[in-house]
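Here we describe the complex-level prediction in full. Unlike the single-chain runs in Section 2.1, the four entities below were treated as one system.
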Amino acid sequence: MARSKVTPEQILREAARLFATKGFHGTSTREIADAVGVRQPSLFHHFATKHDIARTLYEYDYARSPGLQGVRELPDGAPPSVEFYHSVRREILVEMTSAYDLRGLYLSALIDEPEFRQWRMAYDAAMARSRAVIEKGVADGEFVATRVEVVIEMLDATINQAVRWSGDQRDRSMPDDVAVVALRMVLARPSRIPSIRRQADRLLDAAGTPWPEALAALDD
Amino acid sequence: MARSKVTPEQILREAARLFATKGFHGTSTREIADAVGVRQPSLFHHFATKHDIARTLYEYDYARSPGLQGVRELPDGAPPSVEFYHSVRREILVEMTSAYDLRGLYLSALIDEPEFRQWRMAYDAAMARSRAVIEKGVADGEFVATRVEVVIEMLDATINQAVRWSGDQRDRSMPDDVAVVALRMVLARPSRIPSIRRQADRLLDAAGTPWPEALAALDD
DNA sequence: GGGCTTGCCTATCGATCGATAGACTTCGCT
DNA sequence: AGCGAAGTCTATCGATCGATAGGCAAGCCC
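The structure predicted for the assembly as a whole is:
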């Protein structure tokens, strides 16, 4: 009987997929093993514990996400509308180009475990930064007075589900389209959206990181 | 040693709370029992199985939700904008007035189990009705051409998280405020929002179900 | 070919799980 | 007070879980 072979990459992919649909606690290591085609104890040659699989996925997401790291891609003086618009499209792009379906990672059943405290904090900090941008927009008059917690909740959900829009044919306009929907929630004058987008693009060009080049990742 | 006593109501409340934070599969029956102050086997005198607890919660939600039942509260001729606005605020109100924290129910790990197929279908049908309203709004020109699946995703998330806004002081303006945020995503002319709201209110008055009376449930 | 390393397998472990059995307690009714 | 019902308790069950142990196979290098 020929022995199966498995790579850590395959385990991560299948585990993430199962975590996304059945939750971490609803997914057994036997199910993961079956999905990759080996026997359950084999997983423990590649990952010390089941939680280690999740931790590796968190690390992966963090490493790719400017939002989670708190890295700004636009200069300090960018208006809240431009900042908000770009941060949404950026995070949508990150999740659409993820090698793994990470929808299971940001459910409270998992991320609230003590072991994952640092990822919880990073996530909360990212949401707080978004909140601050919206609040500045409201204060500046670019955005309408609004229920910021509702907007944040909607953002949270959308980014976490973005992987669903990464089919075989990845639509290059999706990140920007989602950012438009998000911006419409708060923007006092929706007619400004095209110019906000152009401004975001120009600032990225000036920073040497043109947006169309970032979008090229969707072709991979 | 005095014996503890427990009601099914208490079990449902604590179970729902635990399901919301730890997930159904991440919550043991021992945890539920501890939370209500009895020993684990006692739960099985009130509910035949752990899944029965979840089923009871689904039934409760369904019974209270016009959206899930597909019950229209506005007449057929109501414009998509009015229909959309009202359905959002209605479902927010339902979840804000829920006796249980139902956030754990609509996670795929649970609702996708074969046993809960009918609730999955009811939920999907409700989302499809929302989609149809948005699509009609786009076709009529009331709404901008938009990524409908993104709007639906955001709606989904918001309604499911609405229980978080039911603190000790329930804000009677919250359902309408959330509906405004949702409507802004799609409405071609946001300046029409006040009149859309008035129209929704008038139609409900004419139907004998004034909105302020529905909102009174928040005072309970 | 032989030796070593890696990792896949079967077997097993201790722990936890949802649920059952039956003794016992409490409450309500007569 | 006595009886019956309801439901809480302790004890236990069979099943499943994440993880460990050690044999074995395959691949690589000399």
